Amino acid sequence: MLNRLFSIMIFFGIPLVVVGAIFHWSDIPMFFLCCITIIALAGYIGRATESLAIVSGPRVGGLLNATFGNAVELLISIFTLKAGMIGIVLASLTGSVLGNLLLVLGLSFFAGGVKYKRQNFSIHDAKYNSGLLIFAVIVAFVIPEIFSMSMDHAKTLSLSIGIALILIALYMAGLFFKLVTHRGVFASAEQREEEIETPEWTKGKSMLILLLATVAVAFVSEQLVHTFETLGEQFGWTELFIGVIIVAIVGNAAEHASAVAMALKNKMDIAVEIAVGSTLQVAMFVTPVLVLISLLMVEPMALVFTVPELVAMITATLLVINLCNDGESNWFEGLILFAAYVIIGIGFFLL
Amino acid sequence: MLNRLFSIMIFFGIPLVVVGAIFHWSDIPMFFLCCITIIALAGYIGRATESLAIVSGPRVGGLLNATFGNAVELLISIFTLKAGMIGIVLASLTGSVLGNLLLVLGLSFFAGGVKYKRQNFSIHDAKYNSGLLIFAVIVAFVIPEIFSMSMDHAKTLSLSIGIALILIALYMAGLFFKLVTHRGVFASAEQREEEIETPEWTKGKSMLILLLATVAVAFVSEQLVHTFETLGEQFGWTELFIGVIIVAIVGNAAEHASAVAMALKNKMDIAVEIAVGSTLQVAMFVTPVLVLISLLMVEPMALVFTVPELVAMITATLLVINLCNDGESNWFEGLILFAAYVIIGIGFFLL
Amino acid sequence: MLNRLFSIMIFFGIPLVVVGAIFHWSDIPMFFLCCITIIALAGYIGRATESLAIVSGPRVGGLLNATFGNAVELLISIFTLKAGMIGIVLASLTGSVLGNLLLVLGLSFFAGGVKYKRQNFSIHDAKYNSGLLIFAVIVAFVIPEIFSMSMDHAKTLSLSIGIALILIALYMAGLFFKLVTHRGVFASAEQREEEIETPEWTKGKSMLILLLATVAVAFVSEQLVHTFETLGEQFGWTELFIGVIIVAIVGNAAEHASAVAMALKNKMDIAVEIAVGSTLQVAMFVTPVLVLISLLMVEPMALVFTVPELVAMITATLLVINLCNDGESNWFEGLILFAAYVIIGIGFFLL
């Protein structure tokens, strides 16, 4: 059903975006058109990645997922970076972290918790995730923020590059740990294997779709980015609000839908993995890769968020770790996470 | 015994406060007179609420407790607000949080731990409490603090109102969770039911006492507030110290006594519930209600604490969550909490 | 083997330092000479303390360990203090905390984890340690930092003295808790007793070695401190970097070696005890003692770290508590700790 809707959205969306780009349609309709098309394309990328992951086995599949799982966000961010809007890039990365941790996880806990009294997920996954969350958000993001206050720009950039390399290396080491040396420990991986999974598409078809959809997302993202300025003026939205809330919701729409669907099937392991795993991908892979890519651009991007962005991420991290560390969830925990998202959303709207 | 003492204190206290108010006695004796009378009245309000709670069943009882449990603090704060001393209101709310988390819980752990080697309390309660503590203190109090730094006063106020409404809604949802959908999970509630509790007073008598005592507290609080200015000048105490330490100890004296008494009976579930539950009442109900009430006054109160107040609450929260999350206590954990209270107390005294 | 190497290092090191001091050798070779000699002497102090601890039973042994365990750091710091370099003292205390929590523990987890898939240590110890870590770093260090921002120097000093006394008192109470009232709870203590330990040296020999080595460390430390200024100029190192990284590594070299050795023998209880116990000694004993000693010097030292120092300690504490609270470790957790150390190290290098 959802897949059929996505097909229709893409079938009409891409040609319209092309026409709109050529004839310079006004920015507000273009913004919505781009958003809808990207959401649909993200759905296709997700399915292609999943099919490929099943065919290639969990190890290569994990790597594929790590690379293409946030391909949409990466592409939107690269074009935003190219347009010189560093502020929106950092804001949308913040928004991805907040959206996944508070909104996606919150709605999953809530929706699942209304149906089932208590739901369980792997404590081993929760522990692994919480260690890396603290490392990424509370060590790797906080240190450059605080230290850069008494550094010049060149030193801040050196520190950013160093941290970016360490984040990527540790993310890779984490995959090695999860998929190779300690595979048996992660229950969810085993569970998935028990069901004999059949890929939706063949290897060739998956790769073709992945390629085409990625190219399409890149093209549409570029159009999307150009609408931001008008959007802000028209609706009175700040750059921060567009980045943290709007871009983040568009970029993560596919994850939202599938996490909630999994929670309703009582597969909380997968719902948590989508929400928190996606957060870790953004924090430990997409963000540092963008820092490195930005070195090729006119204005390099340091790993220094604004104070409200960083504080929002820290509070979200502490809240999620506290609620997840027992491997249990219920509707009220979901509501707490959602309430935190609303509070932070109001904050960025008013800022 | 304690109840008899309270009767005597009220019997002499209220007439003396009335006489003192009429003849404008000097502020220092009036301050001590008011404090003693309020402590005794708080004892009566507590007993009346408890009796009513038993008669009305746990659900309505829980609601009653939520509303009248901090009636004294609410009333003192409203009169302080009316006198335009917003700084003292925020300070006394901070003091309630710190006093309950560090002093009440610390003395309970210590007193109980000296008598019993190890004491246990419900892990489910601890988890529920710690999630809400982080939500209230680390999300709902930190966000307006940080975001308001780059906001004008009107926006800060809008953010405060939004957060106040969310806090109250989530507090109500939490009662619904604890008393309706997940009642069986909370062991302490079951335990209490096992003992057939007989209310101390009948329904009618409880309500009459509740009404009279509340009116009396309101009257005495108004007298108390007027002594603050002289008190500060006389003893060299700052507004912050009066609010955080003095008002908080007077406003919570009843809780202190009953929590320690429960710990000595090895009923740690109830001791923790009094200390942490009371903190959550202050943070998620009394504080946001005061923000909303302040809108009717000349000078509205934003949900923005001073930095030392907020930092003290954050550190206290992190310490308590860490010490409580295993559902076990001993005398040394009590001492750690008490030592933290002393450190923070010295800080506010010198500030 | 290592012991023999240490003997040789001392045999040549001490005479050379004496000669160098008399003939005013240049600072760079003197710096390395002093470092090597101190590392070797620290090994001897450690062995003498251990022998004495076995002879005197666990209670007095615990006290001895608490006092002499960080004798080297204490002596270096006193001479640095005497030279008026308060900045380096605070930096090297920070470095001890960071080095023990991130580097020593990280390498132990990693080295042990490469050999054994999963390693376990006492959850009771982990809980005890994490409560005190939060108390020391997040309450006792954060409060003076924040409160001193709106205090004059005299008040900051009063607050520092108060906190120093509370820290020392609580540290002593903790020893009483661990060694007297709740001894049975701490499994590692029992384990050690099971093996009938024979001290390496007799009581008399141990005390003589302890005395001589301590005097020697004091002398060499004084020489070491005088090389810092030249060292900074020569290598372009800041005072902070010398203190946080260089002095800390020299002062803790003995602990590093023995913790990793224990991890490789799968005795994780002892490895964790060395790393975290040593951190607590520095934070709750060495640091406050230095604050009190500094009152006798020309310029007293307030308990106020620089913001980067404090933030680095807070993030390290939160990370370690999160990784340790399940009483399990593996190589990836070690790598996370090590990566955090590298990030913070780069930060201090660039600062």
From TrEMBL, chains A, B, C:
Ca(+)/H(+) antiporter that extrudes calcium in exchange for external protons. This is Ca(2+)/H(+) antiporter. The chain crosses the membrane at residues 5-24, 30-48, 60-79, 85-111, 132-151, 157-177, 208-228, 240-262, 274-296, 302-324, 331-350. It is found in: Endomembrane system. The lineage of its organism: Bacteria, Bacillati, Bacillota, Bacilli, Bacillales. It comes from Sporosarcina soli. Signal peptide: none annotated. Residues 30-179, 206-344 form the Sodium/calcium exchanger membrane region domain. It comes from the Bacteria.
